[in-house]
């Protein structure tokens, strides 16, 4: 359950977000689309209180992020980064265990969770649990990143350009995998991407960000029909691709 | 080579102790440097404003030559003084820079995405540091420790000059005996130690960085820690128990012999065990050590005490010199015993060949001959009120170039081999006869007397009532000829100073 209420955020170099408002109901998947620098990643950071809004409110479960303990908030929010950010000095299993370890899970519980998570993201636990990140392909790494983000069973999952660095075939595969996983776990998901096609493929609702303002926020079909010039341009770029 | 092996074989237990001391000094100082340097490196990586001045300071310390650093540290309380403490302090200062620098560089080089991931998953700053940043920076930190250790192994050899022990003892002993075998006996194991430490830590570094496997990392660290702890224990075992008298000496042959004579006389006649801190360095270091209680006794020369220690004007009457010196030492809590018998005055030396060719025998003849000659003096002689400046004035000496500064251990050979033409040496130097050198007569009586006087800390004399009588047995018994003979036995015949001193005392006991 995520709500942004007229959120503005500025950096010394200028305004990044201007009065952005939207809500994500529980269990729904939303994709935020926009060009680089449109303010997409800033929204993700606001949601886990790595940043705080200058104006307006960010609510998680109807509670202002400024009232959350930031570490608790972050541990109950899964986060998949663009560059995955797997810890290179830890095995796949240890990576997946990192948030449960912070929460003080027992060893047996952690071990069982690793097997469960690897099965969820379609990797064989016997083969992959003890591997090292540098022994994985890009797609496998992304799957482990998702497994790590979901390991502590967070209600919310944030994904920052999760499939950006992958080849088209792997990306299509992972899109299908994502839909399968989301059908199982039913998290509240926010995906940030610059690819309109990806947004339509994955999301229940699509938001279009342009220069810090929300140009559109609606179902995929409604966005496709939207007349906002920025939305039209993004749609045209999608047709060209 | 066979001489070297024979030396090691005959000094096996001493060699073992010196290697243990050497390793322990490096290990202890490296441990402390890591304990201090890693947190400072973390701070420096976090806050540039802290980091920049800290690395500037560490950089400056790194550029101070080690002998100079030892000199600065000697007079300081707690960290200074003669012995292992000063050495460890200096080594820590040297080791800090590489540790700080690699820690902060290792932390800064971590991929931003990894740190973002750690933050986003809700790690506190402390958890991020211990679970992610330090493990990832570990190979870099180990590289810094490696540099620090190798530098440390080298620097410890110099620390022998201030009585810290270690393999440098052989190097200094060899230099003062002009014996390459003894120098190599210390230099080769020191180099081997440096190479071994380098190889071991390089292995650890490779293990850590090749595949950052947590288990292997912790095993390598455990191994390194065990090694360091063992070495630390060795140092503790090597720390002398203080129910012993400590005898010091300056760093040339005659002083080492006199130190041995004092030490053996104490052991023989007073029955108290003695620690030898021979080869300590110059007058300044020995005087400091005596006054701070780091050593209990050493032999000083009356003229040196008057002018170099107490900065008094030069005085040429021996009794007046002795009286003044005795009174001033008494004010400092030091007792000057009766002189040993010989007067080790400075001797201005030239090659026998030149003296015969030019008919030189007196200092007053030197001025005419010296216009195109080259002179070399020990640094003390150049500085002292009773040294070169006064001598040049008294005899009107002028040389082609300013006199060169040369170590006392090398100066006789430099003269004999024709590198220089005039030197100032000791009148009792054994090498004078051995190298066919000639001492010019001080016909204008410029040099003050230099009677050899045993100095003992008064508190030590009170604690060991039998000590004074034991040392007074040497009073007036060592004449210049005996001293020159003993010096030559060590310098010329390459004999062990301890054995030469023992023979002399044996002869004394037999009443010869």
Describe the fold and architecture.
The complex is a heterodimer of chains A (241) and B (512). Chain A is an alpha/beta fold. Chain A folds into 2 domains: 2-76 and 156-240, Rossmann fold, CATH 3.40.50.300; 87-154, no CATH class. Helix content of chain A is 40%, strand content 25%. Chain A has a 6-stranded mixed beta sheet with strand order 6-7-8-3-9-10, sandwiched between helices. Chain A has a 4-stranded antiparallel beta sheet with strand order 2-1-4-5, with helices on one face. The radius of gyration of chain A is 18 Å and the shape is globular. The two termini of chain A are 34 Å apart. The model of chain A has no long low-confidence stretch (mean pLDDT 89). The radius of gyration of chain B is 27 Å and the shape is elongated. Chain B has a 5-stranded mixed beta sheet. A 3-stranded antiparallel beta sheet of chain B has the order 3-10-4. In chain B, α7 runs antiparallel to α9, α9 runs antiparallel to α10 (214-238) and α13 (302-309) packs across α14 (318-331). Chain B has helices at 2-10, 12-46, 48-63, 66-73, 84-108, 112-120, 125-159, 168-177, 180-210, 214-238, 253-270, 283-292, 302-309, 318-331, 352-358, 366-369, 379-383, 388-395, 408-416, 431-434, 458-463, 467-472, 480-491, 497-509; strands at residues 245-248, 274-277, 297-301, 334-336, 346-351, 375-377, 404-405, 422-426, 437-440, 452-457. Chain B contains 24 helices and 10 strands. Chain B has 512 residues and is of the alpha/beta class. Chain B folds into 3 domains: 2-238, MetI-like fold (Orthogonal Bundle); 245-343 and 449-509, Periplasmic binding protein-like II (D-Maltodextrin-Binding Protein, domain 2), CATH 3.40.190.10; 346-440, Osmoprotection protein (prox), domain 2 (D-Maltodextrin-Binding Protein, domain 2, 3-Layer(aba) Sandwich), CATH 3.40.190.120. Classes of the chains: A alpha/beta (241), B alpha/beta (512).
């Amino acid at each position: 359950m995520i709500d942004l209420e007229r959120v503005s955020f500025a950096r010394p170099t200028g305004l990044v977000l201007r009065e952005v408002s939207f809500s994500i109901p529980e269990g729904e998947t939303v994709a935020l689309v926009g060009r680089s620098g449109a303010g997409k990643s800033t929204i993700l950071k606001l949601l886990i209180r790595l940043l705080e809004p200058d104006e307006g409110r960010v609510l998680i479960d109807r509670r202002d992020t400024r009232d959350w303990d930031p570490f608790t908030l972050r541990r109950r929010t899964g986060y998949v980064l663009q560059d995955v950010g797997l810890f290179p000095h830890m095995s796949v299993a240890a990576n997946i265990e990192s948030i449960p370890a912070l929460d003080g899970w027992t060893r047996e519980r952690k071990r069982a969770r690793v097997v469960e998570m690897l099965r969820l993201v379609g990797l064989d636990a016997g083969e992959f649990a003890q591997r090292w990140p540098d022994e994985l392909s890009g797609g496998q790494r992304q799957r482990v990143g998702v497994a790590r983000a979901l390991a502590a069973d967070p209600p919310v999952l944030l994904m920052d350009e999760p499939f950006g660095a992958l080849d088209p075939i792997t990306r299509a595969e992972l899109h299908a995998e994502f839909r399968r996983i989301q059908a199982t776990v039913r998290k509240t998901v926010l995906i940030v991407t610059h690819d309109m096609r990806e947004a339509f493929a994955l999301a229940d609702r699509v938001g279009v960000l342009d220069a810090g303002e929300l140009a559109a926020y609606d179902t995929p079909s409604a966005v496709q029909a939207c007349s906002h010039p920025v939305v039209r341009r993004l749609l045209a770029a999608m047709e060209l691709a | 080579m066979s001489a070297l092996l024979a030396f090691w074989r005959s000094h096996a237990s001493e060699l073992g102790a010196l290697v243990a001391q050497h390793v322990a000094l490096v290990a202890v100082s490296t441990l402390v440097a890591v304990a201090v340097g890693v947190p400072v490196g973390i701070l420096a990586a976090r806050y540039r404003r802290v980091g920049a001045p800290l690395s500037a300071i560490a950089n400056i310390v790194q550029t101070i030559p080690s002998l100079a650093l030892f000199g600065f540290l000697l007079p300081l309380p707690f960290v200074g003084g003669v012995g292992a403490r000063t050495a460890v302090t200096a080594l820590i200062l040297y080791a800090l820079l590489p540790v700080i620098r690699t820690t902060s560089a290792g932390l800064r080089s971590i991929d931003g995405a990894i740190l973002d991931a750690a933050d986003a998953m809700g790690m506190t700053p402390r958890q991020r540091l211990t679970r992610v940043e330090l493990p990832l920076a570990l190979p870099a930190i180990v590289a810094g420790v490696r540099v620090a250790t190798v530098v440390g192994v080298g620097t410890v050899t110099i620390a022998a000059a201030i009585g810290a022990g270690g393999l440098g003892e052989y190097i200094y002993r060899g230099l003062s005996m002009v014996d390459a075998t003894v120098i190599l006996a210390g230099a080769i194991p020191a180099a081997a130690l440096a190479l071994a430490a380098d190889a071991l830590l390089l292995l650890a570094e490779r293990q850590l960085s090749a595949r950052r496997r947590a288990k292997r990392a912790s095993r390598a660290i455990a191994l390194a820690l065990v090694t360091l702890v063992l070495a630390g224990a060795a140092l503790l075992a090597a720390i002398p128990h203080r129910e012993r008298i400590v005898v010091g000496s300056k760093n040339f042959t005659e002083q080492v012999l006199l130190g041995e004579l004092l030490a053996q006389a104490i052991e023989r006649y007073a029955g108290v065990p003695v620690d030898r801190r021979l080869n300590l360095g110059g007058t300044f270091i020995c005087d400091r050590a005596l006054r701070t209680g780091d050593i209990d006794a050493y032999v000083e020369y009356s003229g040196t005490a008057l002018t170099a220690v107490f900065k008094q004007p030069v005085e040429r009457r021996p009794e007046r010199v002795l009286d003044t010196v005795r009174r001033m030492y008494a004010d400092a809590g030091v007792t000057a015993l009766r002189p040993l018998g010989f007067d080790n005055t400075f001797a201005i030396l030239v090659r026998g060949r030149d003296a015969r060719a030019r008919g030189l025998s007196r200092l007053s003849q030197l001025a005419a001959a010296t216009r195109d000659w080259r002179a070399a003096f020990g640094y003390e002689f150049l500085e002292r009120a009773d040294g070169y400046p006064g001598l040049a004035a008294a005899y009107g000496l002028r040389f082609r170039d300013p006199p060169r500064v040369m170590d006392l251990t090398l100066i006789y050979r430099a003269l004999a081999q024709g590198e220089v033409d005039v030197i100032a040496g000791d009148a009792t130097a054994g090498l004078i006869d051995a190298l066919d050198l000639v001492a010019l007569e001080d016909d204008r009586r410029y040099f003050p007397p230099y009677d050899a006087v045993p100095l003992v800390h008064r508190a030590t004399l009170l604690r060991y009532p039998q000590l004074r009588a034991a040392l007074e047995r040497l009073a007036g018994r060592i004449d210049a000829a005996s001293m020159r003979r003993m010096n030559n036995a060590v310098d010329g015949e390459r004999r062990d100073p301890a054995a030469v001193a023992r023979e002399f005392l044996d002869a004394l006991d037999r009443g010869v």
